[in-house]
Structures are given as structure tokens and as C-alpha cells.
């Protein structure tokens, strides 16, 4: 089963994996609003598949559509 989490929870998971990360909650929120990170809205919260997000960042940029993350 995939891990689906809120933006804040996702940011905390990333921070736990890499304490020096520059990927903040604010950055994740911006990327969600721009559609860069796949997410879905339930009520007033956006939810993110954390495993897919990690996979996105582990994949070289050239493999992403339009050369973007």
C-alpha cells in the first residue's frame, strides 16, 4: 500500500530522510499548486503519494516529461 500524506507530513518524511534538504513544506506546497507534484484534494487538504514523490526525485530530470520534475 502506498503512503498518502498531507503536505506537512510529506515535508517531515523528506526531512527525516535528509536532514539537510532544502525541500521545505513551503516548497512542496508551491509545487503542488503548480501541478509539479501529483496530488489530490480531499476536503481542504492536499494529499501526496510520498513513495511516488520520492521516486520522482530519484529519477534523472531528463526522464521526466518536458524535462521537469
Give a brief description.
This protein is 43% helix and 17% strand.
Describe the structure.
With 69 residues, the protein is an alpha+beta fold. The protein has helices at residues 7-17, 25-34, 50-58; strands at residues 4-6, 39-42, 45-49. A 3-stranded antiparallel beta sheet has the order 1-3-2. The model has no long low-confidence stretch (mean pLDDT 88).
Task: For this entry, give a set of tags.
alpha+beta, single chain, 3 helices, 69 residues, 3 strands, three-stranded antiparallel β-sheet
Chain-wise SSE layout:
Blueprint (H helix, E strand, L loop, with lengths): L3 E3 H11 L7 H10 L4 E4 L2 E5 H9 L11
Antiparallel strand pairs: 1-3, 2-3
Distance between the termini: 23 Å
**Rg:** 12 Å
In this structure, how is the largest beta sheet organized? Answer: 3 strands, antiparallel
The tally of helices reads 3
Mean pLDDT, nearest integer?
88
Helicity range: 40-55%
* Global morphology: globular
Oligomer: single chain
Which runs of at least 5 residues are low in confidence (pLDDT < 50)? none
